[in-house]
Write a structure and sequence with these properties.
alpha+beta; about 15% strand; Nuclear Transport Factor 2, Chain: A; four-stranded antiparallel β-sheet; 4 strands
C-alpha cells in the first residue's frame, strides 16, 4: 500500500472516529463564546453597593455569609471551587463544586445579590471532556488534538498529491 492509500484510509477512519469529539467541542465552544450574551448560559455579574477598598468585607465575613445562607451547595470550604472577585462591580462570585451553583455577594454590604445555576461551567466540563471522566480530559482530548493535526496534514497531502496528479495529466 502506497503512502497515498495509507493516508486516504486512515484519514477517513480517523475523521469518522473523531467526528463526535469534534462535534462536541464545536457546539460547546460556540455556546461558551456567547455565554456573556445570554443570561441562560451564564448569570450576569451583579453590581454591589458603592464603597472604597477599606469598606470591603473581610474574607472571614465572606465565608460566614456563604456558609450561613449558601444552601446545600456551600456547607464547608471543601464545597467551594473558586471565588472570583470583581472589584469594579464590588462583587464576590463564589462557585460551588456541586451542581454548578454560584452565589454573588456584595463586597461592601455582604448582601447576597444572586444565587443561580451556572450552565457555562457545565458547558466547560463538556467541552474539555472532564464531565465524562478525568481520563477523557487527560488522555482522549490530547489524542483528539493529535488526531486533528493528523487529519490536517493527511488532508493537505491528499489534496496536494491529487492536485499534482491532475496537473501532470493536463501537461500530457
Amino acid at each position: 500500500m502506497g503512502l497515498y492509500q495509507f493516508f486516504r484510509r486512515t484519514h477517513k477512519w480517523a475523521g469518522i472516529l473523531l467526528s463526535l469529539v469534534f462535534l462536541n467541542m464545536a457546539v460547546t465552544g460556540i455556546l461558551l463564546l456567547q455565554k456573556k450574551n445570554f443570561p441562560c448560559i451564564q448569570p450576569p455579574t451583579r453590581t454591589g453597593a458603592e464603597g472604597q477598598i477599606e469598606d470591603f468585607i473581610p474574607t472571614s465575613r465572606l465565608f460566614e455569609i456563604i456558609f450561613s445562607r449558601g444552601g446545600p451547595n456551600f456547607r464547608t470550604l471543601d464545597d467551594i471551587d473558586r471565588i472570583d472577585f470583581r472589584p469594579g462591580n464590588r462583587v464576590f462570585k463564589v462557585h460551588s463544586k456541586h451542581n454548578y451553583a454560584e452565589i454573588q455577594i456584595d463586597a461592601v454590604t455582604g448582601k447576597i445579590l444572586s444565587s443561580a445555576w451556572r450552565p457555562s461551567d457545565l458547558l466547560e466540563d463538556l467541552h474539555d471532556g472532564s464531565y465524562y471522566a478525568d481520563s477523557l480530559h487527560d488522555v482522549i482530548m490530547p489524542a483528539a488534538g493529535a488526531g486533528l493535526l493528523f487529519l490536517t496534514i493527511s488532508g493537505l497531502y491528499l489534496w496536494f498529491s491529487t492536485w499534482l496528479r491532475k496537473r501532470r495529466q493536463k501537461r500530457k
